[in-house]
């Protein structure tokens, strides 16, 4: 009796799951670079100068303004455009310098703490009808996760999808409105409530505004944009 020998074709190995390689990490770092250079470094410099080096508030504001000022000038000279985040940080610092000489009036001292968030809110809101929503610099890295496919999908959607552009504008509108409302609420509180109350309540108002902005912007902009980018990144491009 002959025994039939069963042969099987060798199976191809399963494709390895994609990993976040150096290219993806580099793309994420590049997408986060404007936020770090234009906003986080000047902020860290301010706190380092006032805390670690014992500088006065005015001196620290002046020195921490040098990088955004240089970035603003460089953008105008090299690229003939304004660097939105750098201009925003510079504007906040200039307002802080202008108000830094205010002394004596406790209520005015408390009210000027709202100047920064108020200026940021106004500038962010103004950037939306200008066609360059400022909060996009913070939004894009989180939506695309720094992946090249996500970055490419963002660019295609930004060029072709009115719904995507509307969500992008909505993100800046929500944050600008929240910061401006927080500044107005704190100023009203300063002049209608006891000063001892506003010393702690002002921080609570800021925290509530930030949390609400995160929730509302997440529901109206971040979540739908992530879904659109994910779907677009997974769709093969027509050749």
From TrEMBL:
| High-level lineage | Bacteria, Bacillati, Actinomycetota, Actinomycetes, Kitasatosporales
The answer, when asked if Transmembrane is one of the entry's keywords, is: yes
Keywords, comma-separated and alphabetical? Membrane, Transmembrane, Transmembrane helix
Query: Low complexity composition bias: which ranges?
Result: 1-11
Span-the-membrane segments of this chain are 44-63, 84-103, 115-135, 173-193, 199-222
Using the UniProt annotation, give all residue ranges assigned to the region (Disordered). Answer: 1-23
| Entry superkingdom | Bacteria
- Protein name, per record: DUF3159 domain-containing protein
């Amino acid at each position: 009796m002959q025994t039939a020998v069963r042969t099987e074709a060798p199976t191809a190995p399963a494709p390895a799951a994609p990993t976040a390689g150096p290219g993806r990490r580099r793309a994420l770092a590049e997408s986060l670079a404007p936020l770090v250079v234009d906003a986080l470094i000047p902020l860290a410099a301010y706190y380092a100068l006032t805390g670690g080096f014992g500088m006065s508030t005015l001196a620290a504001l002046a020195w921490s303004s040098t990088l955004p000022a240089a970035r603003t000038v460089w953008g105008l000279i090299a690229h003939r455009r304004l660097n939105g985040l750098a201009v925003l940080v510079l504007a906040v610092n200039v307002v802080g310098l202008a108000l830094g000489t205010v002394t004596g009036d406790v209520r005015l001292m408390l009210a000027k703490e709202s100047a920064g968030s108020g200026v940021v809110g106004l500038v962010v809101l103004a950037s939306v009808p200008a066609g360059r929503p400022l909060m996009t610099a913070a939004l894009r890295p989180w939506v695309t996760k720094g992946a090249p496919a996500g970055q490419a999908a963002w660019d295609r959607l930004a060029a072709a999808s009115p719904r995507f552009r509307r969500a992008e504008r909505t993100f800046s509108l929500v944050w600008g409105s929240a910061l401006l409302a927080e500044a107005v609420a704190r100023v009203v509180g300063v002049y209608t409530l006891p000063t001892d109350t506003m010393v702690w309540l002002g921080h609570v108002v800021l925290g509530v505004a930030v949390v609400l902005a995160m929730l509302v912007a997440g529901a109206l902009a971040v979540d739908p944009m992530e879904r659109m980018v994910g779907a677009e990144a997974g769709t093969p491009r027509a050749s």
